[in-house]
Design brief:
By secondary structure, the protein is of the alpha+beta class. It contains 5 helices and 4 strands; from the N terminus they run H-E-H-H-E-E-E-H-H. A hairpin with a 6-residue loop joins strand 2 and strand 3. It is extended, with a radius of gyration of 36 Å.
């Protein structure tokens, strides 16, 4: 009888602890979903846009490719005929981006360019830009009507009477004569 009451007490306390653990997990999930720590943006590699990839044609030299796309992220000595341009970006609140562009050479000339669907330069800039706080563009210039409504500036009066006439006091010399 003593053993069964003791095991019943242990079982009841274990059930109570399990319930507390489940309650605290749901509470902490709610709190952590409200507060998110700052995460550093990680941008690595070469950005290759659609316009840049369209400039690469078969038969171009390595120097011409480097001028258009920049230095490759990976130039493996074991695969000297292949340049890899890898771009990755991780930002808080967005899906990670990763693109790999591969340029293969035959000797010193471009053989093929293999790339996923690349964004245009405008699309890429739009994807990395922070949303503006207002939808309204700031006004940068006045219309002709607004310019005409402005008061004219007062004319400048140049008179020599307002200019200072030199030192107001005369001081003795610092060193004896």
């Amino acid at each position: 009888m003593l053993c069964s009451s003791r095991s019943a007490a242990v079982l009841a306390s274990l059930l109570a602890l399990t319930g507390c653990a489940q309650f605290s997990n749901t509470m902490s999930d709610g709190v952590t979903s409200l507060i998110t720590p700052y995460r550093v943006e990680i941008v690595q590699g070469n950005v290759v846009t659609r316009e840049q990839a369209e400039q690469i044609k078969p038969g171009m030299s390595r120097t011409q490719v480097r001028d258009v796309l920049g230095s490759p992220m990976l130039a493996d000595p074991f695969h000297a005929q292949r340049w890899d341009y890898v771009f990755t970006m991780r930002r808080q609140g967005t899906e990670p981006q990763q693109r790999t562009v591969v340029v293969e050479f035959d000797g010193d000339r471009v053989k093929t360019l293999t790339a996923p669907e690349l964004p245009t330069e405008r699309e890429f800039v739009a994807s990395i830009s922070r949303p503006s706080r207002s939808d309204k563009e700031p006004k940068l210039a006045l219309t002709e009507e607004e310019k005409a409504a402005l008061p004219l500036p007062a004319p400048k009066v140049s008179s020599n009477a307002d200019l200072p006439k030199g030192a107001a006091r005369s001081y003795p010399p610092l060193e004896p004569l």
